[in-house]
Amino acid sequence: MTAAMYDLAIIGGGINGVGIARDAAGRGLKVLLVERDDLASHTSSASTKLVHGGLRYLEHYEFNLVRKALKEREVLLRAAPHIIWPMRFVLPVDQGMRPAWLLRLGLYLYDHLGGRDILPGTKSVNLHEDHRGDPLQKRLKKGFAYSDCWVEDARLVSLTARDAASRGAEIRTRTECTGLDRGADHWNLQVRHEGETGTEQARVLVNAAGPWVDPVTALYDRSNHAAKLRLVKGSHIVVKRKYEGDHSYIFQNRDGRIIFAIPYEKDFTLIGTTDQPWSYAEGDARISDGEVAYLCEAASEYFEIPVTPDDIESTYSGVRPLFDDHSRSAATVTRDFVFDYDNAGGAPVLSVFGGKITTYRVLALRAIRTLSDALDIDGDDWTKNAHLPGGDFPPDGFEALVERCAGDWQFLDRSIVNRLVRAYGTDTVRILAHAETIADLGQEFGAGLYEAEIRWLIEHEFACTPEDILWRRTKLGLHMSDAEQQSVKQWFDQHHPQSNANPELS
After folding, report:
1. Are 121 and 147 in contact (CB under 8 A)?
2. More confident residue, 450 or 502
């Protein structure tokens, strides 16, 4: 690797890092982003997968955070209507919990704080007459239905990174920053990729390493500074589908927290999340027996048919890198982002703490505005009306796009076309462009996955391993047998894809 002077170097390939890279590259800056693992391989693929305002944050008086997030819902929906779509949430009223009048007041604020053009407002629900009450225990008579959005979180990261690359950013996955030297006017970054080491230079540094912001800071600041992160683990369970319909539930717990039950990958229900303190000494974030019991018990308080550990098909856990505001409970720590900008001790560095997927674009804009003097740029909001790759169709145009693709490629099962359009939007046309028969898509691996899709993800979305394909760029691992997953691994072993090239975006 040879040294090159970048305007901006970003450490961290989660949603915040790629969002900043995209915004900066779109302004003509020379940008380098390095990520130790795969894009979205940690926190950003372990969320509850919602673009939402955060209804429960209202009772913690985080009105600014909720307003900011509510405004972003429809901005992101318009930017990526293939991977983000509206969803209705049913909130049952339960005796001994927050009273109905308080919930209605909170939902009134939720409907009006951020404004809505696309999403419908809150409605009351008679759970004994509405089909959405059928899976619930009969003591639950009344509820409310309100709107938020679903997001394919890992795909949001990869598409944002792809857009950044199309605008000139250099995205390097499997590349670890092992050392940082701060000069008067630039940074030296020691980086390692596949055993090879090198040095890169940048005028400004952004530390967007998520749960590892503090360890990255320690690479150049070895003083006894106090850690600013509060690390909180959130875990989810995936069970066989608990109910029919495309709506979700939000359940109040006896401890004051809430959990969601959400339709997931057609055949499953996603239940989460938890809030547990976490430390680096624990290693990879994994669900504990206590968290399994907590989620099963909380869901069983509401569903007529209880949820048990035997129902679990899969789990995932992630670590939230929250700014330590010294709250007593992990559940009450602010979810808003906080910046630490240091331009006094040499070349500027901006460290990012906290944040939500919903507000990643706003976070990126604020980061650029914070760095505008150091980078000699303005802070216009260019990303507000810019779609992500594949998202150049109206939010209500999904079915029309499916019809178009189904008509053009009639040899494909409708369910496969629907999944491809849901994942790739208008880029489905590019993936299938040269296919006149099913054989033209190459090897079939199972669950509707063909070689053409794998090649697309390698060439355009930074995928390097079977795990990148099966569990982040898609969730097809949930639908494939062990033998089918092994066939994907064998394909990778045979073809040895390049692991560190920017995607070709022509």
Report:
1. yes
2. 450
Provide the CATH topology of domain 86-150+230-324.
Answer: D-Amino Acid Oxidase; Chain A, domain 2 (3.30.9)
pTM, two decimals, is 0.95
Q: Are 308 and 268 in contact (CB under 8 A)?
A: no
Mean pLDDT over residues 96-115, rounded? 94
Q: DSSP string spanning 169-192?
A: -EEESSEEEEEEEE-SS-EEEEEE
* End-to-end Cα spacing for the chain: 25
Cβ atoms within 10 Å, residue 31: 27
Of 436, 447, 502, the C-alpha closest to 474 is 447
Tallying the residues shown for the chain, one arrives at: 506
Strands, E, within 18-132: which ranges? 31-34, 50-51, 84-92, 123-126
Sequence-distant (≥ 6) Cβ neighbours of residue 321 within 8 angstroms: 43, 210, 211, 212, 213, 229, 231, 353, 354
Q: What is the DSSP string of 415-468?
A: HHHHHHHHHHGGGHHHHHTT-SSGGGG--EEETTEEHHHHHHHHHHS---SHHI
DSSP secondary structure string, 205-232?
Answer: EEE--GGGHHHHHTTT--S-PPP-EEEE
Give the HSE-up count for residue 38: Cα atoms under 13 Å, Cβ half-sphere. 24
201 membership: H or E segment, kind and range: strand 196-207
Q: Domain 5-43+155-228+335-385 in CATH: superfamily?
A: FAD/NAD(P)-binding domain (3.50.50.60)
Q: Are 308 and 295 in contact (CB under 8 A)?
A: no
Q: Is the pLDDT of residue 345 over 80?
A: yes
What are the residues whose beta carbons fall under 8 Å from the beta carbon of 390, sequence distance 6 or more?
80, 82, 159, 424, 425, 426, 427, 428
Residue type, 153: D
CB 304 within 8 A of CB 135: yes
Q: What is the pLDDT of residues 422-435, one digit of tens each?
A: 999 999 999 999 99
Can you say whether the dihedral through the CA atoms of 480, 481, 484, 489 is positive or negative?
Answer: positive
Cα–Cα distance for residue pair 503/506, rounded to 1 Å: 9
Closest CA to 113 of 75, 148, 70: 70
Query: Apex CA 294: angle with CA 288 and CA 300, to 5°?
Result: 135
Partners of residue 250 on adjacent β-strands: 260
Distance from C-alpha of 140 to C-alpha of 95, rounded to nearest angstrom: 9
- As given in the structure block, the two tokens for residue 243 are 């109910």
| CB crowding 260-275: b at 16 or more within 10 Å, else e | bbbbbbeebbbbbbbb
CATH class of the domain whose range is 398-495: mainly alpha
**What three-state secondary structure class fits 487?**
helix
Q: Where are the domains of the chain?
A: 5-43+155-228+335-385, 86-150+230-324, 398-495
CB-CB neighbours of 59 under 10 Å: 12
